[in-house]
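Re: weekly structure request thread

Next one in the queue (436 aa):
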Amino acid sequence: MFWRVCYSLLGALLLPLLFVRLWWRGRKNPGYRKNIGERFGCYATTPLRNTIWIHAVSVGETRAAAPLIALLEQRYPESPIVLTHMTATGRATGETLFGNRITQFWLPYDYRFAVRAFFDHVQPKWALLMETEIWPNAITECARRRLPCFLVNARMSERSAARYARLASFTRPLFAMLTGIAAQTEDDAQRFRELGARDVTVTGNLKFDINVPENARSLGAVLRQRFCQKPGQRPVWIAASTRASANSSEEALLLDALQRQPDALPPRTLTVIVPRHPERFENVAAQLRARNLAFVKRSDEADVPPEVSFVLGDSMGEMFAYYAAADLAFVGGSLLPLGGQNLLEPLAMGASALIGSHTFNFKDISAAACAAGAVMRVSDADELIVRAGALLRSDETRNAMRDAGLRFLQEHRGAAERLAQWLGRYGAGISKKNNP
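Done, posted below.
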């Protein structure tokens, strides 16, 4: 009770600041200034009924939810799917992946009045929260309404488990309110059990059931043509989903390493940099200009001259196409202690991949991928440039990594079907009688 009162009081104090935060973030990404009423349970659309509510906070969770959403659409066509997000990039990704097939809203801020208004409007028959989204008032409201609520594709690191354990009097009842948890690994499952969760199973990682967008390969071919007007004209590698910390950025580390080792990459190599967040596009452009490095923006829709060595990927929803256009990929968020990004996406597109040493968000996947020979790990930016140069000079090594990556993906697929079968035990998921 003490912690719940503290949570409510803190929320009340922060309420005025939420508008300021949305306005501030909207300076660089206008998506944050759209449909603000939804953040507080106000809707301009007609109320829905009998929906399936899935919450995917941002880009990675939204893409991971895609195979599950496809399966639910196929087997439960009478139940509209409602997908909620917290970030503008997550919502934009949902629009790209699903178009008008599903309904998208912002997840309301975790105030009781907003959460209750959301449930009244959406009227879900069950709730699926992707990965580790623990919102006390939302979970409590599910329990009050006897609405089955599941944490799916769930993960729990040792560090996060320790934080939850320190607030056990507050968090244990929340985990116990969840109808069930479908964890990615047995280690994740055990940590959830220790935190008070009732029914925990292991269904695997939905990210392995990756759905490649239909136009990804064709768009990748268009990008490749713009990068290299003649077949085999130049090697192309991509630094994908690069990020920044408070004191540095992966782009700066990469560009500095390239300047220290100008001959590490093969002659005429094209380096494509795709920042993770659109609000950083101009910042990265400024870094390139400050180093007097000529570059072409993806948004220019222009061919890259042979003398230009850099492309700034300033577009959203095209990461699969970038991978399809590249000979080699570095997956960002891993040179700095940021946890890494999804390394399975380049493997699905047949691109060999490099990752940094900071992949705690993908600890098990990255370790297994490296062991399978599908991915190589580097310790810093200088090693990244050396390894990238060696791989770009060796078609044989890259092809071996590509084949290993495709095998690795295939061996771990099936999480969506396992999750569906598990949900069916509750009568809230997909039972055999609903199969087409």
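The longest strand covers residues 124-130. Confidence is low (pLDDT under 50) at residues 429-436.
Next request, please.
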